[in-house]
Amino acid sequence: MTVFDSSARYYPSGALPLDDLAYWIAFSRVLGIGPKRFKQLLAFFQDDVVAAWNADSATLAQAGIDQRTIDSFLRQRKDIVPQRELERLEKLRATVITWKDKNYPPLLKAIDYAPPVLYVAGRLTEADQFSIAIVGTRNASQYGRQVTEQFARELAAHNVTIVSGLALGIDTIAHKAALDAGGRTLAVMACGLDIIYPADNHRLAKRIVESGQGALITEFPLGVKPESRYFPTRNRIISGLSLGVLVTEAPEKSGALITVKFALEQGRDVFAVPGNIFSTKSTGVNKIIQDGARPVMGVSDILTDLNLFMIPQQIEMQAILPDNDEERALLALLNHEPRHIDELIRESGLPTMTVTSTLTMMELKGMIKQVGSMQFVVAR
To answer: How confident is the model at residue 6 (pLDDT cuts 50, 70, 90)?
Structure first.
């Protein structure tokens, strides 16, 4: 039984030719070629990923790759067929997103060592940039369960996407509460999309995908099994996707505190629900409050700190922001008084065809509207 939507259209990377995309995927399977080295290769080979893949040892050394990594790459390369990797993803109708794509999550793209390739089952939306990660212990108390449900439910009701790691305990509670509230949730995995871990959460993973309320996300290619070393790597993506991280319950040695560490390194806000000082399950969360995390008593504390009270309006405003210099130039000349296209051409100094095509695109985006014969005003 698969978690993928069999009726969905296969969605390859929009910014790369399929041949190139196959090699991006192949590189993501190579142990030892992480974001830093991959960026190094792209720079040396001037974005020619096929040339980077087929390079010999001497050329890779010229690119600045150390000999140990070169030897490891050459060994692994023999067993990886790039086109076959692409075909496997196509059969599962998985989404592949790369650094080159406009829909690569902008918050994640801004962190150090952002994954070059993301594999997604389900759907990402613009609203997901307004995300809060909720993390905590796998062995939640009744108190931990109660506060997690409340925060996830109320954040979702305010159109905040809930990000977590699909683990048992706090993660599971947060995902389910967001879905039950009709909100969105993103589950970041430490394995390939074709391996749901823990297996107990297969039904939850399937619900996230099929409901249209979220997505499963991983940087690991198909077939990669969860290993302990992958979970901290996964945690940097949880915090990287989010505006802030909320810890609802965590003991002293909790994986959630690794997510907090990444959040602080990434400049994210860290929030914590105070716990019982006599409970070992709250030792970690109380400690991070002592260390400077923002203690929160209710969802309004988070919404106020991050200015998340009007997410739909913020999305609407972002949709009408100019995408390029031409749009910016024309928008600066427009207001609520009709301006004829001839005036806009003359005052902008842009070629006639550029102004015509740009105005058409701006009208389609809802940025401007035509109120007479070739006369335009701002739409809002």
So the answer is: very low
